[in-house]
UniProtKB/TrEMBL annotation:
Annotated GO CC locations: adherens junction; cell periphery; cytoskeleton; rhabdomere
Protein name: FERM domain-containing protein 3-like
Molecular-function annotations in GO: cytoskeletal protein binding
Residues annotated as domain FERM: 1-237
InterPro entries according to UniProt: Band_41_domain (IPR019749), Ez/rad/moesin-like (IPR000798), FERM/acyl-CoA-bd_prot_sf (IPR014352), FERM_2 (IPR035963), FERM_central (IPR019748), FERM_domain (IPR000299), FERM_PH-like_C (IPR018980), PH-like_dom_sf (IPR011993)
């Protein structure tokens, strides 16, 4: 049954190396499980929740061969926006939210969409009244755009964000400051609060070591032959 479900709903994702997985949310941390694995064993947790997710994000979602695969990326990014992984400034968040409104509600209708009609829709992790007002303002300007058009606009906007494809993990830097560490197709990124502080491109990464609780990245800058070493310590969780 598992294989049939996977073949029916995700026949193309493996082909483009964007595998759908089962994400179990027992304890506080999700666990990635390949959907084709057999004989899976899980801890005795009730309830045990499963969800299909995208694990590897393509650098350019518009180079994907199949529309259905690109749509799965769109759905995942909507989830990332809701869960706070796809973080962006309030203006960008309002634009992304407006695309979702246009896709789900259609054109703005002053007779139907009265007052703060966004308040009952959960689109962002931190959805303030200010952002909701900006969403409605942008939504009015999207008249006559089809779901396919706004999904495309959403993907273009989301793929340009620093947090695109990043699942940030809490760590501490060499000075003991709380930061967040993540990786995506561009390289290794660190965030302080919700602001990106550094990005080490993959071409700059010479080696990665993990010693005890210390994550060490050896960097080489092409304009300078000297090697820089950065150490990051995972937070105790």
């Amino acid at each position: 049954m598992e294989d049939q479900m996977y073949d029916k709903h995700f026949p193309l994702i493996v082909d483009v190396l964007v595998p759908a997985t089962l994400d179990t949310t027992f304890s506080q941390n999700g666990k990635w499980v390949w959907a084709l694995n057999a004989g899976l064993h899980f801890p005795d947790v009730d309830p045990l929740q499963f969800s299909f997710r995208v694990k590897f994000y393509p650098p350019d979602p518009f180079k994907l061969k199949e529309d259905i695969t690109r749509y799965q990326i769109y759905l995942q990014l909507k989830r990332d926006l809701l869960h706070g992984r796809l973080y962006c400034d309030p203006n960008a968040a309002a634009q992304l939210g407006a695309y979702i409104l246009q896709e789900e509600l259609g054109d703005f209708n002053p007779e139907e969409h009265v007052g703060n009609y966004v308040a009952d829709l959960k689109i962002l992790l931190k959805q303030t009244t200010y952002i909701e007002e900006k969403m409605m303002e942008f939504h009015e300007k999207l008249k006559d755009q089809t779901p396919e058009q706004v999904e495309t606009a959403f993907l273009r906007k989301a793929a340009c964000l620093d947090t695109y494809g990043v699942d940030p993990q809490p760590v501490k830097d060499h000075a003991g400051n709380q930061i967040y560490l993540g990786i995506n197709h561009t390289g290794i990124l660190t965030f302080l609060g919700n602001r990106r502080t550094t990005r080490y491109l993959w071409k700059q990464v010479q080696n990665i070591n993990y010693e005890g609780k210390m994550f060490i990245v050896h960097l080489v800058f092409h304009e300078d032959p000297r090697t820089k070493v950065s150490d990051i310590r995972p937070s105790v969780r």
